[in-house]
Design brief:
By secondary structure, the chain is mainly α. It is built from twelve helices and no strands. The protein has a single domain, classed as Methane Monooxygenase Hydroxylase, Chain G, domain 1 (Up-down Bundle), CATH 1.20.58.480. The longest helix is centred in the C-terminal third of the chain and has 32 residues. It binds protoporphyrin IX containing FE.
Length: 246
């Protein structure tokens, strides 16, 4: 018999995955040929962000309960997804800047700057900045989610807690890694996540420069210059700094 969907029909590929609903969500604002690509790429990012958040929550829980194997397992998945997110920028880069201009003005003032899930990943990882909640003024639900992320522990918090429980400092961990190999591997897996996200920032700003040059963003920022100012952001600054102390 198998499973049935909500309306009692036998489950199918389309009903299980809600394909008709999913394919009904790409109505654009214009007839521009490239707008479909633009929408699908952004939606695909949001879906992957959803998975990344889900995995990072599992990582946080695992670190908190000292299950470092599970934490590394989920972090490894995050790393592979992040590589895909970096790669995906290339798809949007096939859009010619002249073609983007045929629909770009319609998008303002919407901007990736308002991606609530992107901020959730930042907050959940340890990069909390309440200032970004303002960008979501018109979206009470997203605002509330972000506010909750601001208040709950981040990966940085639970990792710091774990080191404290084990009585280890980051410098000692790296100087004497053979004493706590599981901790050291976890630290490197966290750094992979940090690096994966930084690579996305780099790739995104490069693509943005190719698309709009030095023009301001649809979200009202200085555009490339604003994005360049974010490139130094790190989830786990101490894991980068310890390199110079070895
Ligand atoms: C033609 C393609 C794109 C252009 C020209 C572009 C441009 C920009 C610009 C100029 C900003 C700065 C904020 C502003 O003033 O709007 C920005 C921010 C952002 N964009 Fe894009 N973007 C593009 C594609 C994407 C895609 C595919 C994503 C995937 C989710 C994305 C996610 C973001 C995010 C998350 C931010 C905020 C970054 C931060 O504040 O650190 N963008 N984008």
């Amino acid at each position: 018999m198998g499973y049935q969907d909500a309306s009692g029909r036998r489950l199918s590929y389309g009903s299980y995955l809600h394909v008709p609903e999913l394919l009904g969500l790409q109505a654009g604002l214009t007839q521009a040929h490239d707008e479909l690509l633009f929408i699908v790429v952004h939606q695909a990012y949001e879906l992957w962000f959803k998975v990344v958040i889900h995995e990072l929550e599992a990582v946080r829980g695992a670190i908190d309960s000292d299950d470092l194997r599970a934490a590394r397992h989920y972090l490894n998945r995050v790393k592979v997804i992040e590589a895909l997110l970096v790669e995906q920028v290339g798809v949007l880069e096939t859009m010619a800047p002249q073609d983007f201009l045929t629909f770009r003005s319609e998008l303002a003032p919407a901007s990736g700057f308002q991606s609530a899930q992107f901020r959730e990943i930042e907050f959940l990882s340890g990069l909390k900045d309440a200032g970004y909640i303002k960008a979501l003024d018109g979206e009470p639900h997203a605002r509330a989610r972000l506010q909750r992320r601001l208040e709950e522990p981040s990966l940085l918090d639970v990792f710091t807690g774990l080191l404290d429980r084990r009585g280890v400092t980051i410098t000692n961990l790296y100087r004497h890694g053979d004493r706590d190999p599981d901790l050291l591997e976890l630290a490197e897996a966290l750094l992979d996540h940090d690096e994966g996200f930084r690579l996305w920032r780099l790739r995104h700003v490069q693509m943005v420069e190719r698309q709009i040059g030095d023009k301001p963003g649809t979200g009202g920022s200085t555009g490339v210059r604003y994005l360049q100012s974010t490139l130094g952001k790190r989830f786990f600054p101490e894991l980068w700094e310890v390199r110079s102390q070895l």
